[in-house]
Amino acid sequence: MAHTFERAPTSRAKCRGCDGKIEKDTVRFGERLPNPYGEGEMTLWFHPPCAAHKRPEPFLEALPDSEFPVDAADALEQIARTGLACRRLPRLNGAERSPTARARCRSCRELIAKDTWRVALVFFEEGRFEASGYIHAGCVTEYFETPDVVERVRHFSEMSDADAADLTAAIAAPPSSP
Ligand SMILES: [Zn+2]
Ligand SMILES: [Zn+2]
C-alpha cells in the first residue's frame, strides 16, 4: 500500500518523529514499510510537520494525493524539499547545551565542550530512528550543507528566543579548536 494521510481514529498512536501523541481526529501521515520482522507491511505514524522534517521522500510522495487537508501544506512541502536537497538535514533531532564534555562530534571528531551547543542526530534504519550522536554548532554548516537549521531545531527542541539567537551565533562562529 502507498503512504497515506488520514484522520487519526484514536489518540493512541505516537508520532515516530517527536514521540508526541497524535490527537484523535487530527490528520496524520502514515509511512508504509515492509515489516522487517515478518510478513506484510507496517505503518509508521507521524504528525505531518514531523514527517516533512524527518521523512521527506515518502511525505512528498503522498502529499499530492492526500484526501485530507494538511495544515500549512505549502510550508511543509518546502521543508521536505530542503531536506531532499540537503540530504543530512532529516537527521536533525534538536539541540541542547552539552551536559558533559564526553561526546565527540560526528563531523570533526573532536570533543564537544561542556555547556556549548550540540545538535542531536538520529539515523533512520529499518523503520526506526536510532540516536546517533551530536555535532558542534560550529560544524553545522559543513555537515548539513546549510547554516539555516534553527527553525528545524526549534521544531524538535523547545527553546527561548534568546537561546535560539545564541544557537544561531554559535552556528555562525568557526568550529572550536580542540
Ligand atoms: Zn511529531
Ligand atoms: Zn565538530
List the helices and strands and how they pair.
Layout lengths: L3 E4 L19 E8 L6 E6 L1 H7 L1 H7 L10 H13 L6 E6 L19 E9 L2 E9 L3 H5 L5 H7 L4 H12 L6
Antiparallel strand pairs: 1-2, 2-3, 4-5, 5-6
Helix pairs in contact: 1-2, 1-3, 2-3
The structure holds zinc ion (2 copies).
One zinc ion (ZN) binds next to strand 6.
CATH class designation of the largest domain: Alpha Beta
Give me the number of helical elements.
6
State the shape.
globular
Rounded mean pLDDT score = 95
And the CATH topology of the largest domain? first zn-finger domain of poly(adp-ribose) polymerase-1
CATH superfamily of the largest domain: Zinc finger, PARP-type
| Content-based structural category | alpha+beta
**Overall domain count:** 2
Order of helices and strands: EEEHHHEEEHHH
Flag low-confidence runs: none
Could you give the order of strands across the largest sheet? 1-2-3
Report on the biggest sheet. 3 strands, antiparallel
Gyration radius, in Å: 17 Å
Strand content: 15-25%
Distance between the termini: 50 Å
Task: List cofactors, ions and other ligands.
Answer: zinc ion
Please give the share of residues in helix: 25-40%
Using the 3D structure, state the CATH architecture of the largest domain.
Answer: 2-Layer Sandwich
**Strand tally, please?**
6
